[in-house]
Here is the input.
Amino acid sequence: MDHPARLDALRLRLAAERVECLLVTSLPNIFYLSGFTGSAGVLLVDEGRSVLFTDGRYALQAAEEVHGSRVVILRSGALKAAARRLGRYRCAGFEASADCRTWRQLREQAGACRLRLLENVVEQLRLVKDDDELERIRRSVALNSRAFQQTVKRIRPGLREVEVAAELEYHMRLLGAERPAFETVVAGGPRSAMPHARASARRLGENEVVVLDHGAILSNYASDMTRTVHLGAASRRARALFRVVLEAQQRAVAAVRAGAACSAVDRAAREYISRRGLGRYFTHSTGHGLGIEVHEIPRLARRDKTRLPAGAVITIEPGIYIPGMGGFRIEDVVVVRERGAEVLTTTPRALLEF
Ligand code: ZN
Ligand code: ZN
Here is the structure.
């Protein structure tokens, strides 16, 4: 990971924003810029230097992980120490992820320095992945697909949703994942109509649809996939609904290319679902950026006019949710390329019937 190059790219942005430094408080941004994976620290980046403030618990870890930034170990109060430094500047940027307590601390310590809220300044840099990041995401996606394949062959009526989720996460770990990227979704029958249903203690029944949505973190990068399976032979209606989602998903994937607006990719899926009379059952956006975090910019949503740059990594995940009956969703991770999408998720998309 080329941290000095990332810091230089950030400096150009800071100059354009007319601030002398940025106080980075978002941990994923700190990792991106410095390599530090600890859970307490603040990074201060100015024209010439980058300094990570953290405490004694992370002294060894920071020495090992951080490249391109100087590390300052404090007994306590990393934020306070960093905020006090702001007094040297006339105008400093801080991130939107800072909470009220952080902001108050900054205000108290920064003296005459003017504080400016900068939204998504590091996130914009993270939007385009470099080759090292793409390789990490590729491996995370492959691991996640293997965990799915190893779990799904044992899925059967009578298992609890949480047992299936535990198995998914167990396989992720065995395959080398650091942790799940988010709370694993295993939702059977009517619960599958809730797009973000967490796995519950409910037992899977005969003849019902099951949505599995899960991701892993491997080498600090996320994966995210959804497959829909059916216990017992699916009804004609369930198959028809599934086919609509699959076609919508494929149309959205086909709409991906460098320069395409996020809204256009969303529209490719949404218009098809709407034309089939199911528009009101597609209740979320078509996808999201993915990288160090499972949800990054951009959103592939109706009103997001962002043009996709080559090298961005996004998910494509339309779904249909019929209250009382069930839900259907298919989600893949794709890389935006000049001429189209490179699909990283290789797991077959067909409706699996057990
Ligand atoms: Zn997902
Ligand atoms: Zn997703």
Notes: The pocket of zinc ion (ligand 2) is lined by residues 224, 288, 315, 317, 331 (CB under 6 Å). The domain at 131-353 is CATH 3.90.230.10 (Creatine Amidinohydrolase).
